[in-house]
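The passage that follows is intended for readers who have already worked through the single-chain material. We present the inputs for a multi-component assembly, then the predicted structure in tokenized form, and finally a short commentary. You are encouraged to pause after the input and sketch how you expect the pieces to fit together before reading on.
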Amino acid sequence: MENQPTPSPTELRTEEFVVNIGPQHPATHGVLRIEATLDGETVKNILPHLGYIHRGIEKMTESMPYKQSIYLTSRMDYLSAHINNHACSLAIENALGIEIPARAKAIRIIMDELQRLTSHELWWGSCAMDIGAVTPFFLGFRDRERILEIFEANTGNRLTMHYIVPGGVMRDVLPTFVSDVKELLKKIKGYRHEYDQLITGNFIFQHRTQGIGYLSKEQAISLACSGPVARASGVSCDVRKHYPYDGYEKLDFKEVIDYGCDNWARYLVHMEEMTQSIHIIEQLLDNFPTGDFRTKIKGIIKLPEGEYYQRVETARGELGVYIVADGSNKPYRMKFRTPSFSNLGAVKPTTVGLKIADLMANMSTIDLVVPDIDR
Amino acid sequence: MTKKELKQYLEVTYPNMEVKETFNFPLLLVNKEDVIPVLTKLKDASETRFNFLFCETAVDRNPNFEVIYHLTSTYYHHDLEVKVILEDRENPIIDSVYGLWEAADLYEDEIYDMFGIRFKGHPNLRRIMLTDEWNGFPLRKDYQDDKIISL
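Having made your guess, compare it with the prediction:
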């Protein structure tokens, strides 16, 4: 120690220190703790700590009949509750070889796409708020509220619907459903220019996102990213296109891919996906099938022994339901491959080397939902 | 490749390994020692190019453990399930695939946390969901906890 020369004022050194962001921090949108190593304002390392809302859903499913397990999936990604139920129901239907009526398929897809719209609208508001704009949050919630009203009228619930069940849907939609949704879409399309005026064309927002949070295509694949995060890095991974389910193959829609790899690209992919969702719903409303909304299936579901895997595209990416069945009425093991858990890995490579304020921007465009990570 | 073609390809390429099929995917049973060479070959071979590890998990088949890798290819969009059986229940250990797919970082942390399977070569193996002092591994079939109340 004595041999070290005293530093001259020109050789001032800096020291790294650790800051815990969360678990109660508004920018993490839930209880997630990020251990960030900082040098001044520059982020040197990111280590996420999870488990603050771990409920052991995979353990709980092992002691529950298949039908009851579906109810737990709404609690994972609560912004894609319909789509989670859909994944679980599809896994059971495919294993048992049940064919469901055309009306049920149409209702399921309309509900899925409305759910994607609610999720992306909430994301749009909160993303802008993380970056510093307050008004978009209210506008996002205003439009989301209109869709939630439709959910409430038709399914009885606003957030955890449990509407999609094996064999179809729980109950038929209201007679006014088609006209309600048509009116809603008209309203939402009318609002879209406000979104672009407020945020998309905003100089400050563009400078906070363009060129920030770079995630290369190779890294997105290596990290098993899916959904808008991977598609903004040029990875074609839309489950609706590559492994279509419940009639997506008959619909005309584009897989939104951007090659920008940064926050701005992720923003654009989300925005374009909303347009595509509206387009999908319009096609189904024009010739909405009549008939049964559900096929009768046995009261107790028993899956034959084997392994089943079913994936769907939620608002955040690819959700996989992996069921190991032993022939009884309960799953031997049920694993949920959730999109947010894989996408969480993208926080570190996008942020290291940038300033701490960019961490918030990156996390909001990666669009994490914490109960989906922890399960 | 379709499921059938992929199954035939695997039978020809890996003659000393068992090839089965599950409801959705072909299934390749790999010995514990061969995990890294086999997965590296599957990732790099121009016929398969399984470059996307979309799910890695474990199943407790008391007394054995199964570690399961679900692979897909962003070039060909075909899928494969690779299964490794671990017979040592007291000290289950397997090579980490972190060198092949960065996604394994979080997946293997979770498997270690829930099943107690150790991964050799993993950069930072930690209890990711539960606390460090937690007793036992919850997703094992013989896990006992007084706090579990069945209704």
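Commentary: The first helix of chain A runs from residue 57 to 61. Chain A has a mean pLDDT of 87. How closely did your sketch match?
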